[in-house]
Amino acid sequence: MSLLRSRLTQGAAAAAVLALTVGLSACGAAGEEQTEGPTRQFTADNGTVEIPQNPKRVVATGYAVPSLIEADAPLVGVSSWERGEPMMSDEDLTTYKELPQVAGETAAETNYDAIAEQNPDLIVIGVPKPIFAEIDAERLESIAPVVAVGPDVPSAWREVSRKQADAAGALERFDEVKSEYDAKAEKLKNKYADALSGLKLAHVGGYGEVENGNFQREFDGSWGTNIAGDIGAKYYGEVEEKGKGSRAVSEYPSLEELPSAMREADAITYTVNADGSVPQSVEYVMDSNLWKNLPAVKKDMTFPIKYTEAATYGQAQQTLDALDETFAPLLNK
Amino acid sequence: MTSAPPATPPTVRTARPAALAVGLLALLAAGVASVAVGARAVPVGEMWGAVADFDPLNGDHLVVRDIRLPRTVLGIAVGAALAVGGALIQTLSRNPLAEPGILGVTHGAGFALTVGAALGLAGSAVSQLGLGVAGSVLATALVYAVGRHSTLRLLLAGVAFSAVLMGVSLGIRLTSPDTLDKYRFWAVGSLAGREQADLTVPLVAIGVAFVGALVIARSLNAVALGETVAHTLGANVARVRTVTLVLITVLAGAATAVAGPILFVGLIVPHLLRRLTSGSVPWLVGLSAVVGPILMLVADTIARVLLHTGEVPVAIVTAFLGGPMLIWVVRRYGAGSL
């Protein structure tokens, strides 16, 4: 019922299944020629791994796909990452489409032959640590050195994407994009300093479970809030019972609890799709009279946010633009 | 040689009205519990106020009026539809393991939703409802076209067609994560999250079909004795069978479309009542319409409080309750009850 609850879990599961299948089917590749040249020790989620200092043929899966495309890493194959497509720049999307798809979103679509054909000298697995434990890493390593670098909490995409770029020897471009993001975030922080100062925010995420009559409330550091946090937005409260991963910063109360959850909010943000449409789980909340009775809603202090799934600095710049657009009316209040 | 239906023992004649009265009282209690229990604590006074003196600015009143009451009404309708549908199909097929979904209703609805989601047509609750109904009706019509000549053939066609639809649906979902995500909402079988959809049409359809079931029940009494006996008693078997199948399709199709696949209610409720009703189909239908909603409301209320972390889909609770109940019936009354 909640198999695909969080996007973190979604991506992780897909990437894990993919990597597992790759591992299982890679047994025949043992002993294949490895890249020669200088190596270095790299600390990843799967321990310290000896990897090429300047990898030339990198395969990326999961969250590593968008981050390494953006960092101009020497990719020779990627897994499918459909959900990230709306946030890719035209150039990155072209690159993504042109790269050999060595696997789809699920294990059933894994194409081992395609992976073997690429003869990678490094495989970057972008899944969280617990998921990587389910992978037959030994078999994967028979193809090429494997580094697992995945996020834990949503906001960790910053450190994770940097580490992925570092492993792939693509820090130069990564740092350029990061600088652009930092500059834009700083500019918006100044622009909205007064408007956001003291404003108690709450966020309705896009992963509520309508079939269970609940909604997703996201706090500071969650997918829907962490980039807004970089421009000074403060989301009040915290998760009642902290769980692992995204569950540490978001929870799923019943719709009946909407008034108690958001009554104190001065303003409410909510996740919308990349095309601006409202996800069914958010629509469920907004259609209820409980929502219409909230003080923030009555004061017309609700703001849609696009691109809340951003997991790279390039994508996050689109989120900043979306925040700038949605928060603009605050400057006149 | 034929024989007349056995006379009803006097004890059974008095037990049925008593059971109906007790059932109605239990249904009232289950309904009150369904309105009273939830994630938000609502005082009894506010519950009554939500009905008698509604204040649109009062959060408690809104919870009762907008969430719990619609959900309770939905639970009653779905429980009654599934239980009556189960009583009809078991009587018609003379097969104790039959349940409404056996005619392809459930998998027809699932297939239509899967295809609709893949084509981008299942974005709203209303469109999902429409797809579910359309899939149920089309699947049952196809099953009927193939197996209309005999009940056994009908059931086999239903099973086979359901398997085909299930396989094709699964194939589509496996290759399309977006489709899987949309299908997931419907597939869990739940009464939650439906309260904002306009359910007038399915609820009216269920009500009309229930009345139809009561009307056809006397004729089904004869069919339940076997086709030869039914012919001897003057029943038009073909017409009764056709009308009954239409009623089952409407009942199960509407219930499945609004709440998703909820198993066991249609299977277990008729079994619970079979001995009590002692072969009277009208009483079986009538009591099923009372006990089905009780089971559904109790399961739905439990579903809200079972886990402190959130709700459990009601279909899971009905399965947990229904399985042991079926085993109990078998142990209590022996295989003859089936």
Automatic annotation (TrEMBL), chain A:
Residues forming the Fe/B12 periplasmic-binding domain are 57-333
Q: Which SUPFAM superfamilies match?
A: Helical backbone' metal receptor (SSF53807)
Q: Which domain of life is it from?
A: Bacteria
User: Where's it mainly located?
Assistant: other
List, alphabetically, the InterPro entries matched: ABC_transptr_periplasmic_BD (IPR002491), Bact_iron-sidero_bind (IPR051313)
Q: Where is the signal peptide?
A: 1-29
Name the protein family: Belongs to the bacterial solute-binding protein 8 family.
Its name, as the record gives it, is Iron complex transport system substrate-binding protein
Give the species this sequence originates from: Prauserella isguenensis
Automatic annotation (TrEMBL), chain B:
Respond yes or no to whether keyword Cell membrane is given for this record.
yes
Quick check: keyword Cell membrane in the entry?
A: yes
Q: What are the alphabetically sorted keywords of the record? A: Cell membrane, Membrane, Transmembrane, Transmembrane helix, Transport
User: How is the protein disposed in the membrane?
Assistant: Multi-pass membrane protein
Where would you find the membrane-spanning parts of this chain?
A: 72-89, 101-123, 129-147, 154-174, 199-217, 245-269, 281-299, 311-330
Q: Which GO terms describe its cellular component?
A: plasma membrane
Q: Which family does it belong to?
A: Belongs to the binding-protein-dependent transport system permease family. FecCD subfamily.
List the protein's name: Iron complex transport system permease protein
Native species: Prauserella isguenensis
